[in-house]
Amino acid sequence: MSKWHLIIDVALCHNCNNCFIACKDEHVGNDYPGYAAAQPLHGHSWIKIEQTERGRAPMVDAAFLPTMCNQCADAPCVDAGGGAVQQREDGIVVIDPEKARGNKDIVASCPYGAIWWNEELQLPQKWIFDAHLLDRGWAEPRCAQVCPTGAITALKSGDDDMARRAGAEKLAVLSPEFNTRPRIYYRNLHRFTHHFIGGNVLTQNDGALDCLAGATVRLLRDGAPVGEAVTDAFGEFKIDGLEGGDEEYLLRLTHEDHEDLEQPVRLKQSVFLDDLQPKRR
Q1: Domain endpoint, select from 168, 192, 216
Q2: For residue 200, which of 61, 55, 58 has the smallest C-alpha distance?
Q3: Which pLDDT tens digit goes with each residue over 244-267?
Q4: What distances in angstroms separate CA 160 from CA 3, 27, 157, 175, 190, one per listed residue?
Q5: Amino acid 246: pLDDT
Q6: Cα–Cα distance between 233 and 261 in angstroms, integer?
Q7: What CATH number corresponds to the domain at position 227?
Q8: Who contacts 31 (Cβ-Cβ below 8 Å, separation ≥6)?
């Protein structure tokens, strides 16, 4: 049977917070019996946007990551809820606002920290994929509807079909080691979870420094290639999606008019290499 999924493109999120505001607009002060009690005005972020920054000037990369309940296929909250948390046939996980009252274990059960505790109502609460709107015929949840860049896409698909699509399009989920099988997928997640090596390449031209375009930059780890780029008109290159954690790489630069240049790079976080200058042949 088809289930609801989200695909979020990290590269398209500009941190406008429309999704966060739409969630607040929908739930603050509004009760939806059987779906969710009203969300508090302050203290809850059922949809929130994480931020990170990579690199340094002149190559800085800011990325924004919308997060929410992952609507997990193997949701721990369902087991912790004792009947108060339901996974519907369409895959959406809903916490019953009456049955779950007083059960704070539901909050602790979520490894993603996506369930919030309403102290006033003594309720665990979270984003419900706007199930109350979808049940009334809406084609998508409000977070997808209000996204001005198209970073958030909602779709219904079988889990197997979605897994095949994820493989073909290089989609990823958050913390797959939790083994909860999330139905929120991310495109370009490496912008938030991985690192890059960038730099600029210069050459001597009639006694003056000039940008070297068309140089091939290859990156190796333990002798195996892990990335490749060609310098642009400004002599710049960027190889992304790299593991950090003090990994050691070898950068190898080649150009038909210059001698090969090799430089080891120890990658703890994203780096920019200034003024690489291979010698002319």
Answers
A1: 192
A2: 58
A3: 888 899 999 999 999 999 999 999
A4: 10, 32, 8, 19, 23
A5: 85
A6: 19
A7: 2.60.40.10
A8: 37, 38, 97
